[in-house]
Amino acid sequence: STDIHNKISALALGAFYFVVLFCLLQNQQVLGESICFSSNNMGKGKIFIDGVEGGTDSMGNTYYSRDEMWKNELDRADPTSEKGWYGKGIKYWEDVPASVDGVLGGFGHVTDVDLEESELFYQTLLREGHLKLTEPGRAADCGAGIGRISKGFLCNHFKAVDLVEPVAHFLQTAEKELSGFNDGNYIQIGLQDWVPQQGAQSCFVIFLHLDLNSLASYRLSLLGLYDVIWIQWVIGHLTDEDFVAFMMRCKRGLKEDGVIVLKENACTEGFIVDKEDSSVTRSAVYLEGLCKAAGLSVVAQEYQKNFPEGLFKVVMLAIR
Length: 320
Description:
This protein is of the alpha/beta class. The protein has helices spanning 2-34, 66-74, 85-94, 100-103, 111-127, 148-152, 168-177, 240-252, 284-293, and strands at 55-57, 62-63, 138-142, 160-164, 186-187, 203-208, 215-220, 226-232, 254-266, 271-274, 279-282, 298-303, 313-319.
């Protein structure tokens, strides 16, 4: 009977490891699908959004559709080249001083009220149950710049904040500013290429205890790393396809009760392209439509208060 007991136990343990391996392989397959919209595929996929028609650009040109605008922008050159969509954006920011006033385009005086409203929104998410923290807590600051948001807000709540930023001198300044009170990483990469850390999809496996007297159910929960992925004043630099692919990856980078927060300028309707820094300001409907295309839902929404007149409205979306 002892031999039979051992054989059954070995088979059960083998089955357990088989399911673990299966989940890991499934996750790799899903991850591969989630990044299918790469910079090499821009413009090849169709993303349908209700309620978004045409827009304009900073040179006074009018576009009758999103497709017309993106064709105009992306057919000019390889997006990653110096004259392409991403190349022009990086070149613009490489010439901007690594200061609060620099990263905020001359509006450094709004930083305090911006951080205050972000804190209030964060507390609302906790209070209403849209965000449930687990230890050890970790956040990602996407388009982190010089670490303004991490230093003034995120590091007050998370011991580790990963700063994701493509511009070298911004990230170097951030690392100096946060030295000594951030255990996170400093990652120089564009959001169109960043893959948040993640594990296997959740799955359930059942195996026999060695005493064979009971069954135990175990959950393999190698989910994402982050409680919060904070994305502020940067998503306009992504094309629609890369926006959707990025959000899909962020979804897989969240812990089970984590949340993505998108804080971004929003025009009244359609879109406005900034030809100087290679970015697009989208309407709130446009932003929400892209999130929906990524399989995400908005669970909370508020608008920034107490900003000076003449600036774009700033929408805060909690997404999962």
